[in-house]
Amino acid sequence: MKIFKRAFSAILRFFARIAVSFNGIFNKDDASSNPAGRGTGNEARPRKRLVDGVDADRFTRLCVILVIGAVSVLGAVLVAASVRSGSHEIPVEDGEESDSRPSGSFTLSIGGNVMPTQEMLDCAYVDGKYNFRNGMSELSEVLAGDLTVVGLCGQVNVYGENKQVGGFDAGKNYPSALAATLSELGVNYIFGANQHALANGYDGMCATISNLHVKSVGVIGMTDSEPDKLNTRIARVNGINVGLAGFNCIEGADYSKLTDDQKAHIANVTKDELADRASTDIIQLRGSGAEFIVVCVNWGGLGSFTETDFIKESAKKIAQSGADVIVGYGPCVTLGAEVIAYKSGDTDRECFVFYSLGSIYGNNLYPGQSKIMGLKGNLTDAQKKALETEKKLIQRSKTEMARSMTVNLNIARGSDGSVSVEQASYNPIYMIRNSAHGNENSHLKYISVPCAKYVAAEERPAIFADDKEWEGCKAAFKAICAIADRSGGRLVLRDLTETGGEEPDVSDGKI
Questions:
Q1: How far lies 33's CA from each of 18, 29, 54, in Å?
Q2: What angle do CA 192, 265, 98 make, to 5 degrees?
Q3: What single DSSP character describes residue 268?
Q4: CB 431 within 8 A of CB 444
Q5: Quick one: which of 74, 90, 300, 362 is 20 to 30 A from 112 by CA?
Q6: How far, in Å, CA of 503 to CA of 140, rounded?
Q7: pTM
């Protein structure tokens, strides 16, 4: 942005100089140009030509100025464009306004993972193109924050022209329309540092970042440039500097294939390194002017139905390092939430922790052990027990992975200048797997809906194809509310009748 401002100022000075030069050339105080004096207005006047009265020396200088100026302006534009296109990361605010920051407030919206399966992609393919609007449009009501973050498991259009597209269970290369829909929903950043970020290799990760950038969506936890600034993303929202960092603790096989230089472009850490790395990045963010810090962590895998000791202990350490919000990803089911109180010097602080928000757009199932699930014939007692356990887990995952939660945090600057969460609300989300919704995508099967809109209806809303789906929505609402209650009353159910205010002032929050 500063580069463009300087280029614009140079252009203005350039044209100002031209104006002065023209004044000197065509308005000379030379009596020979009018030997009769001012005249009476009745005398015949000779026809003037363009070159009449032009000072040759000044005209030559003007031509030189025009040529040099044109080359300079063109060079400035090209330099600015190359700088802009060379990095697909959100520029870092350097805190220049630290002495006179305006007061402000904003709403932070956070959602779980986006990870559509192949069947979901097939259902979204209509008239020769992909359309995810119907499947995700209702999320706009619960992701309508001034700054919005969701997770992404997989890559986007890595081969161009939507070639070799595949769902989460078939390649993890989603069509470009998914990025477009996320942008339309108001998503500012995706957290992409997970074991699926390299599903189609390092080049695929870089292509994904570029494709998201084109749709005005930034990335947390990975970069295609400037690895030294991997986790120093800062968005300035309504006068408040928000620091963003992300880490992946689940190392996939693709990561080990990267070169050392490539590994520096994704925030992959071991479980033992997580707390220290997070602390280092939080210190860097604070030093760069961040007043409120959000840390995203991929610390679980499919089938993790509870918070492990590692997750809870890591959250406590990261909170005490200065994080204001911690968001967990990975399990694809909704885990607990709590508020961790800690001391920062003499100041009492709080950190809101969401161990997992589930999957807001996906249809994933617990990965049953194929060898066990394929057992047939006479089984031993141990095999029968293992088989029954796997079946129960698969059924549990089918139920719980259709449920997720989004959160909205109202954040404001206090009278003492500090920034903190004033109010936290949540929204239970249900993934309908058999939708009756028919607009645009006439055969659409999957759609994510805010439960609160439908659970109190006197009769089954038309969006549900049958009573089973409606009952599933009601059950999801009840289950997510029970999870939110574990926060000690700090999370309140959001009123979806609320209306938005003025357009937020987001600097660097969107590219």
A1: 23, 9, 10
A2: 80
A3: B
A4: no
A5: 90
A6: 15
A7: 0.78
